[in-house]
Amino acid sequence: QLQLVESGGGLVQPGGSLRLSCAASGFTLDYHAVGWFRQAPGKGREGISSISTSDGFAVYADSVKGRFTISTDTAKKTVYLEMNSLKPEDTAVYYCAAKSGSLVSLGRNEYRYWGQGTQVTVSS
Fold first, then answer.
1. What tens digit of pLDDT does each residue of 26-56 get?
2. Do 63 and 81 meet the contact criterion of CB atoms below 8 Å apart?
3. pLDDT for residue 97 is more than 90
């Protein structure tokens, strides 16, 4: 069974940091692109970052550029999202997703496999 499982969410103060993990089971992440998405209450699901596991090329949404860093450990079948300088507007459920092929994308409709999500709350 193909699965993605996110972890690492929680409550953090503004300006703080969190690292999210996305672990794959039932398949390898070789020759895939893995994306991170988030959905705040009452809003649509936003693509925030995507990485190619083939060459490490990554893209970021403007809303997180310079604050978030995506990385991959294919041996561990895990993709990470390091989030720094967190703001209250970063509060959302964060999802990881995977698609075949190495082309990165922030478009949610291109991704086939999805995790169940992890809550991130930024509040004092």
1. 888 888 899 999 999 999 999 999 999 989 9
2. no
3. yes
d(CA 61, CA 50) in angstroms, rounded, equals: 9
In angstroms, the Cα distances linking 29 to 14, 41, 73, 87, 97 are: 33, 30, 9, 30, 11
Over 98-122, what HEC string results?
A: EEECCCCCCCHHHCCEECCCEEEEE
Which residues are bridge partners to 72 per DSSP?
79
Which residue reads 């720094």 in tokens? 84
Please state the separation of Cα 87 from the chain's center in Å. 17
What are 105's two structure tokens? 């994308």
Who contacts 70 (Cβ-Cβ below 8 Å, separation ≥6)?
34, 36, 49, 50, 51, 58, 60, 79, 80, 81, 82
